[in-house]
Structure formats: C-alpha cells, structure tokens
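Batch manifest, entry 17 of 40.
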Amino acid sequence: MQSNKIQKTRIPWIYLIFLTVVLCGWTWYMFEHNSFEIYTRQWATVVTMIFGSFIAGASPEGSAAVAYPIFTLILKIAPAVARNFAFAIQSIGMTSASLLIIGMGLKVDWNYIIFVTIGGVFGLFLGTYYVVPYISPVQAKLFFVSLYLSFGIALWLQNRRPQREVFEKIESFQNSDKVRLIAFGLVGGIISSIFGTGINIFTFCLMTIYYRVSEKVATPSSVIIMTAETILGLFIHTQLKKDFQPEAFEIWLACVPFVAVFAPLGAFVISKMARKGIATILYFILIIQFFGAMIVIKPTLFQFSLCMLVLASGIGLFSYLAKVRKV
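Output type: structure tokens
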C-alpha cells in the first residue's frame, strides 16, 4: 500500500525533461547575454508571477488572471505588453503544469478539452484581428474583472445548494454537446485574445454549472486547454503579427525559472485538495481582482454602470445554464 502511494506522488519524467530543457536554455541565455541585471527592474513582476503561476496550476485561471490586473493596474504596464507576456509565460508555466497533470494521470475530460480547443483556435484569431483593435485599455481592464467575478458568483450560488451532484465527465456526450463546447470555446478564445487568458475559466463555468462536472476534473482539464491556447497566441504575436514587445520579452525572461516550478506545484497541490477548497480559492481571487480594480481605476459612473451590466449579464448567463443544466 505504501509503495502505491509513493508511485502516485512521484514526479513524472516528462515534466522533469521539460523543466531541465527550459532551465538549461534559460541559464545559458542569461550568462551568454549577462542579463541578470534585469532583476533590479523586474523584481515586482517576478513576485507577482510566483503567486500567479501557482494559481494558474491550482485553478481554472491562467497566470494572466493574476498578472494582468496587477501589471496593468498597479505596475502600469501597457495592456498589450501584459497580454503578450501572458501568452509567453504561460507557454512555460501552463505547459509544465499540463505535463505534470498528464504524467500524474490526473482525471481530465478529453471531450471537453478537444472541442473547446477547436472553438478556441477560431476565437483567438477572430479576437486578435477583429476585436482587440477596438477595445481601449481601461475598458479591457474593467471588462476583465467584471466578467470573471460573474463566473465566481454563479459558481458560488450553485455550490450553496445542499448535496450538489457532480460527475467526473460529461454524461451521455452527444453532437449537441460538441456544438455547445465549440461555441463556448469560440467566445473564450475571443476573451483570451484580449487578456492572454479567459477560455479556461469561461468554459470551466460551463463544465461545472451546466454539466456539473467536479472542479477536481474541470480544473486540470482547463489547464490543458489554456496551454494549447497560449501556445497558439504566442505564435500569432511572434510570427504572424510580429508585435511582441522587448519589454514583454524582458519580463518573460525574468520570470521563466520561477513559473516553470510554481505552476506545476500548483497543479500538484490541487490534486490533493477537496473540490470545495478549489472553489473557495477561486472566489477569493476573483473578489480581490474586482475590488482592487475599482480602487485603482476609480471608474466613472458610466464605466461603473458598464461593469454592473457585464457582471449582471455573466451571472444571468450562468444562472440560466444552471437552470437548464444537462440531466
């Protein structure tokens, strides 16, 4: 019995190989270019990402869900830089977390992963070229925190129900479920194109509220989805749009070794937590993000009204999904 327990908690070799390659490549670059002095400028971003990457591995939020509001609201980093950095750093953190999830054999729903990712690919391209150019930085920040808080409130309302029944996968998977997942992936991809994250938590709420899939399954599944989305997002901005800023690269370089360790650490911790504990962490993060944005931005009455509209719309959408949830 003891040997089985040890086997389950052994660090997967596929993750160790990835971590070794990343750290060796990073170390070579830092010494070759004598780049360690960047930590005198980027210490605040590193501290942010130590926390953010852990949350990324331990929740349905990408590290950008923590980094984006702090970078743009407190550290005054341009939203476009924060978004591009998010894609770059998550290509390390989320990939390492995904490899740990797969290597440890944690339960995921592959139907969820595959069909949401299909929609997410189209949504990311659509959002990058036809939505992002028309959104102002302040609008992006307020939309981000309001929409995310609506997800948290909707999930909290569902978890208040006594003896809420949950499943380990989408039950009786049909063609209509494929269409629904692709549609939500499309919208989630558009959200990710703005912030560098979003498809994971947007579709996570569909899974937990409509399909009633356990947070312990939906969370690692959403991490794998965001991994695919973030690698594509990085490709778009470095190879197609070619708008990846030097500032984003410097922040990424400073954070790489920390994120490569703390993101999978979060994934490991979440595998040991109870379902409601995962949800509680999520509520806390979303509340802090929203009220932090209100304090820093000090929105006008019109902007605050838009926040309330987004908040109410999000709660309404997911409350509706709960009402008509799949049975």
